[in-house]
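Curious: why these numbers?
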Amino acid sequence: MNHQGHQTSIGTVSARGCVLVALTGIVLPALSAQGQDYEWEPLGSGMSNTVLAATVYNGELIAGGFFATAGGVTCNHVARWDGNAWQPLGSGMNDDVHALTVYDGALIAGGAFTTAGGVACNRIARWDGSAWQPLGSGMSGGTEPYVYDLTVYNGELIAGGDFQIAGDVTCFSIARWDGSAWYPVGSGMNPFLHALTVYDGDLVAGGRFWNVGGVACNNIARWDGSAWQPLGSGISGGNTCVLALTVYAGELIAGGYDFRSAGGMPCNYIARWDGNAWHPLGEGMDAPVWALTVYPAAAGELVAGGDFTTAGDVACSHIARWNGNAWAAVGTGMNGPVYGLTAYNDELIAGGYFTTAGGASAKYIAAGVPVPCVGDLNCDGVVDFGDINPFVTYLSDFTGWQASYPGCNEHNGDTNGDGLYPDFADINPFVQLIASSPLSCP
């Protein structure tokens, strides 16, 4: 699954493109990208156990989790994929890696470990490209200290989890690292935090907690740089825990466990915050959501992974995509839960506790891409006259086309198969396809 990048923007469409619109005399609305399928492939021989987190560092895919080996090589809970094979990062860790991010040019890992590369690094460590190093004295306190998530906010590294001390400072479940030392973020949370992101200039934290600094927050709160604030009446349902957070289409997305309502609205395991109120995403899922990302990164779809087997009323084996209007499957999915999602080399990366993806062997990690349907520029699953106006937009305003058809495969417009898009050389082959339409996508 190798991909060539698209050409620089084309500018105004030629007379030939305008004639295509004139022939139809119809202006068609944007449709969804639900018609396309996905294909999944393994990354080498995969891992020996569960993948919990993934990110990209120095052009390589980094995975962390429970595993001892990756591609048959001893890696101890963290490994890098260079596009061809898995490699270790030093001697790895002595326990689970649950979170990964990049901060100040270094790879940061968090989890349950107490050593990294043989060096004492309590639950958090940095990889500078050649060796593991501690961040102060790390995290401690509590019964089983753990770092569950990491992000960067206002130029500082933010760590969240189940701990009471960061460095030598009391920091309940959340702390910030300024490059030299750990500091608290307000009064923190209790009992624990599981997810972090940045939304609308604020740091957002999710997990299992009911108030922050005396303010009722119900499992989710935002930090404006000086104080914690609630997001409406929060998220609830029983033993609720917010497990994943991301931003999609200018809104905050939250997924989790035993998650039945958000702001008093019924929301099964997933909800969106528009800056003022919570809303459902269709009918939601039938089981917990553990991971969220946006793919493709530019004007893509929201992708969710977890324990679920349906999203809305669609069968989705542990992974699903939302285009702003409806849920759809991501190929045939996995045979077990998805816990981590990211994008690498134009591919969607999923890690978790599974051994097949798309029906093929893929041990605990897999890469997926939309299967091109050449000529289907509105991604409704059929090549027909309804694709003419979207094709003109694809040529004349590629960014606008991406926004109108989120998640639609960019290669669908490469009708001459030369790997260049958008490209006026694709006009005549497109006209030939339309002349033979309607054609169904694979």
Observations:
- The CA atoms of residues 280 and 307 lie 19 Å apart.
- The mean pLDDT is 89.
